[in-house]
Amino acid sequence: MILLTKKFKISQIVLGIFFHIMCVVPIKGQTLLHSHNDYQRQFPLHDAIRLDYDIIEVDVFLRNDTLVVCHDKKKVLHAPTLFDVYISKLVNYNLDQLEGKIIMLDIKEYSDGIITAIINLQKRNITIFKHVSILLSGNFDRMGTLNKIQNTNIFLDGRFNDIKSQFTISTIPIISLNIKDFVNWNGRYRIKRKEALRLKSIIDEVHASGKKIRFWNTYDHPQTWNILKALGVDIIGVDNLELMASYYNLSTD
């Protein structure tokens, strides 16, 4: 089962949000950190592992029968392979460093072939994937995909309709939502009480289903991270890994 065992308790800072009181909330050890579009960094994978991020997001397409890393279909022909950028480098780390890590594959163009390629990649690198989970994200039919990934260490990233669906946390452990679908808050100013309550209601609904929640399309700034964490968000997406590390004093060894 996907390893999402870090604990988080809603603190009284939530009240402070409503009255526009800000403070630094400790992050690591309580909240999962998500390296957004990790492949776009100067050192893909390495910085995320070095700074102890939990989820590493990679956009993937299928080129012939090979998984390649890119965001734009126009670049698929010359895109590097997922194996070269990530899988081949995972063997350079101690298994203790990899334990519980999640590779989120954001499928940019769905097909039966890409699911088969992901399953085959996992099987060929089974030693690594006994410790690292694969989470499939993107716009695709969850039920149809579920039938293809039975008995694998592969899980699905859910959407709003999956909160109260028949899918259990052993299949869809995470719900990822576009924050702009629910509030106008852009993260650059203090959140309004009405919008904070709206987000809190969604977060509570996800937690009631036993799942964890991540909002994407959030502003990359400590004030935003503090508010998200205080509201109970389990997974915080980060673009500037070093900013998060320096602000919250994460290890950079």
What is the tally of beta strands?
9
Helix fraction bin? 25-40%
CATH architecture: Alpha-Beta Barrel
Order of helices and strands: HEHEEHHEHEHEEHEHEH
Q: How many domain units?
A: 1
What's the N-to-C terminus distance? 29 Å
Largest sheet: 8 strands, parallel, barrel
> What share of the residues does DSSP label as strand, in percent?
15-25%
Question: What is the CATH topology descriptor?
Answer: TIM Barrel
Class by alpha and beta content = alpha/beta
**Mind telling me the C-alpha Rg?**
18 Å
Task: Provide a count of the helices.
Answer: 9
Question: Numbering strands along the chain, what is their spatial order in the largest sheet?
Answer: 1-2-4-5-6-7-8-9
Notes on the protein architecture:
The chain has a single domain (13-239), classed as Phosphatidylinositol (PI) phosphodiesterase (TIM Barrel), CATH 3.20.20.190. The protein has an eight-stranded parallel β-barrel with strand order 1-2-4-5-6-7-8-9. It is of the alpha/beta class and 253 residues long. Helix 6 links the parallel strand 5 and strand 6. The two termini are 29 Å apart. The longest helix has 16 residues, at 193-208. 30% of the residues lie in helices and 19% in strands. Residues 5-26 have low confidence and may be disordered. The protein has helices at 13-18, 46-50, 82-90, 95-98, 112-124, 142-146, 193-208, 222-231, 241-248, and strands spanning 32-35, 55-63, 66-69, 102-107, 133-138, 154-158, 174-178, 212-216, 235-238.
